[in-house]
């Protein structure tokens, strides 16, 4: 899996790419993640990437040319192009799974007031991470990259997706987990988890998952 991210702020990715599971996935060649400053693709003598919007209005608009040229330079035979925008379809685990099966993604991070609408002609998916507006698409692109990378075969332990804290296949939230000590601040680990009876543990966990989902995310049970 290769992910190319187009941004005006590449250094925002320094920490993200150099820690924990993402770093390990890169080092072990499960994913290749490249950060590109699309200013480098600007044909303007001053490498300008934005300008005032036609028709007036506040803020600057990202120009089509640098993004078009960057996408054309990076595109391969099996590339999907994603535009991060609060106007996109709402991102969820199911989409993460689908995207984790792709060979190559180009993710475009918007910034400022928006982008020239003609950028949409090179885009396959417009994706929003939720109904709120951030200062740019960099954090949303990290969210996609992180959630997709952990689903790539081999990146995390086999089977641990099944126990994800939210499982889109069952539409249930995860059951509660505990570690040592068995008693902390007067709160005891449920006896069923230490009795070694796997069938009872499984039943307990399933029931706890259902109860938790009913309490916190009843909308998931309706699905
Ligand atoms: N850019 C700014 N806000 C965003 C959001 N909620 N999702 C995707 N991209 C964005």
Short note summarizing the structure:
The chain is an alpha/beta fold and 223 residues long. The protein contains seven helices and twelve strands.
Polypeptide structure, described:
The protein has 223 residues and is of the alpha/beta class. The chain is built from 7 helices and 12 strands. The chain has helices at residues 14-17, 20-27, 64-74, 93-100, 138-149, 198-216, 218-222, and strands at residues 2-7, 32-37, 50-52, 60-62, 79-90, 104-109, 114-115, 125-128, 166-167, 172-173, 183-184, 187-188. The strands form 4 sheets. A 5-stranded parallel sheet has the order 2-1-6-5-8, with helices on both faces. Helix 4 packs across helix 5. It is elongated and about 70 Å long. It starts with a strand and ends with a helix. The site of adenine has 12 residues, from strand 5.
Runs with pLDDT <50, length 5+? none
Question: How are helices and strands ordered from N to C?
Answer: EHHEEEHEHEEEHEEEEHH
> Care to count the β-strands?
12
Largest sheet: 5 strands, parallel
Bound molecules: adenine
Quaternary organisation of the protein chains: single chain
Number of helices: 7
- Secondary structure: helix percent: 25-40%
Please tell me what the overall shape is: elongated
- Average residue pLDDT: 95
Roughly what fraction of the amino acids lie in strands? 15-25%
Strand order of the largest sheet: 2-1-6-5-8
- If you compute it from the alpha carbons, what radius of gyration comes out, rounded to the nearest whole angstrom? 22 Å
First and last CA, distance: 31 Å
Q: Structural class, from secondary structure content? A: alpha/beta
